[in-house]
Amino acid sequence: QDLAAAFAETLDLERGITYRTQASVSRIAEDREQSLAQAELALKAFISKHSDHPQAPFANSELGQLLFERARSLQWDSEAASNANRKPELQQQARNLIEQAKAIYQTAHDQYKNQYDGFPKFIDQSEDPDGFRLRLEAEVKYLKAWFSLTRCTYERGQTFDMGSKERNETLIQAADEFEAIHAARRTNPIGLQSRL
Q1: Is the separation of the CB atoms in 36 and 19 below 8 Å?
Q2: Does the N terminus or the C terminus of the chain have fewer Cβ atoms within 10 A?
Q3: What does the alpha-carbon distance between residue 184 and residue 164 come to, in Å, rounded to a whole number?
Q4: pLDDT tens digits, 35-84
């Protein structure tokens, strides 16, 4: 109750970031999974309580990344020879997490796009350096969210067996989505990365 109101509002977000960081340095699988679960709960709590907060897009991006990382771990597990009998189950679990992450990234994308679109199309850097910097930061966040959405499509394709129709179709869709980012932002580093 002695916390400043601004910090109290973001307490769940800070908890989520802390638990996610804790999970990233843990070498014990059970501890890592427990920290990720706590991070997910804290981030979801922040998002549900403060969906209009300026940090909501960041919280959505963090939650999307957390789910995405869990999906990639499941995908790697599915490729292990010791899990051959569970491969379809692990692939489906990974796809489910990727779909959840994609929905969250879509929300972050839309929030960041609204922030970016709130700026004038052109800001003269010499006349308004702060406005120029803020618009550039908003653009980078928007493009990162767009890239993350497309990366979900690509990773979803990776959850299907090599040579399968679903894999090929999904990877072609991902290539088209990456090309759309590149076509829209050829001179931006994120647009250039989309071309790779």
Answers
A1: yes
A2: N
A3: 31
A4: 989 999 999 999 999 988 989 999 988 999 889 888 888 888 888 899 89
How far is the C-alpha of 111 from the C-alpha of 87, rounded, in Å? 36
The closest of 147, 62, 149, 141 to 106, measured between CA atoms, is 149
Q: Which two tokens stand for residue 127?
A: 């006349």
| Exposure on the CB side of residue 41, measured as CA atoms within 13 A | 7
And the tokens for 70? Answer: 């869990």
Confidence (pTM): 0.81
Distance of CA 15 to the CA centre of its chain: 18
d(CA 103, CA 97): 10
CA–CA separation, 146 and 188 (whole Å): 13
Residue 88 burial class via C-beta count within 10 angstroms: exposed 0-12, middle 13-18, buried 19 and up: exposed
Q: Where are the alpha helices (DSSP H) in 26-128?
A: 29-49, 56-78, 87-117
CA distance to 24, 66, 161, per residue, from 46 (Å):
21, 15, 37
* Span 143-165, pLDDT tens digits: 999 999 999 999 999 999 999 99
